[in-house]
Amino acid sequence: MAMYITCLDLEGVLVPEIWIAFAEASGIPELKTTTRDEPDYDKLMKYRLNILKEHGLGLKEIQETIAKIDPMPGAKEFLDELRSFCQVIILSDTFTQFAGPLMKKLGMPTIFCNTLEVAPDGEITGYKMRVEQSKYTTVKALQSVGFETIASGDSHNDLGMIKASKAGFLFKSPDSIKAENPDIPAYETYDELLAAIRKAMD
Question: pLDDT tens for residues 171-186?
């Protein structure tokens, strides 16, 4: 019998996009750009850090916004149900300093993500990726130690892990990504995704 692990993206799937919420809270529309718009993550992060520096904003201000973010309606119930019959790892390109408070609201699921480099005064000076192409690399590593993976996400940076998995699904994806990947089943509700994951494990 196969041992399954479901790998889920975080932002856009279980919680709202953190940078979009912060763009709205801070009134800086340029921070709304996400991996849906800019597939090159390094370019995207450098752009974001420059904007924060220009406006004199640091980790504290972003964490104040994150404290007010709630998971998407139904996300915790979906995760609880999924974790009742399958191991789950959240694979995200976000940062431990952002994800912590959100994990509490989701019942402390396991998350693999990246780390911010923060100066003593709270300025975000850089970031450290856990590994290149972290989602795809992690899925391949899990497969190498005997797991079958099922993956779901909404963005460009989720396609690698979705395509490399035994079953993969787009979830709440923009139409452009759905149109570019017609072969990947796409779902909009947690009930549909839960049913698809159960079916993939049969």
Answer: 999 999 999 999 999 9
Sign of CA dihedral 161, 163, 169, 172: positive
Rounded to 5 degrees, what are φ and ψ at 187?
A: -125, 155
CB 166 within 8 A of CB 148: yes
Torsion sign over Cα 95, 128, 44, 135: negative
Tell which CATH architecture fits domain 3-17+68-201: 3-Layer(aba) Sandwich (3.40)
Can you give the pLDDT at residue 173? 95
Rounded to whole angstroms, the Cα distance separating 94 from 111 reads 10
Asked if 136 and 160 touch (Cβ cutoff 8 Å), the reply is yes
Task: Give catalytic residues, as residue numbers.
Answer: 9, 11
**pTM for this predicted structure:** 0.92
Give the C-alpha separation, 35 to 44, whole Å.
8
First to last CA, the chain: 10
Counting every residue written for the chain, the total comes to 202
Q: What is the mean pLDDT of residues 12-16?
A: 96
Burial class (CB in 10 A: 0-12, 13-18, 19+), 168: buried
- 41: enclosing H helix or E strand: helix 41-55
Tokens of 172: 């709440």
Parse the chain into domains and list their residue ranges.
3-17+68-201
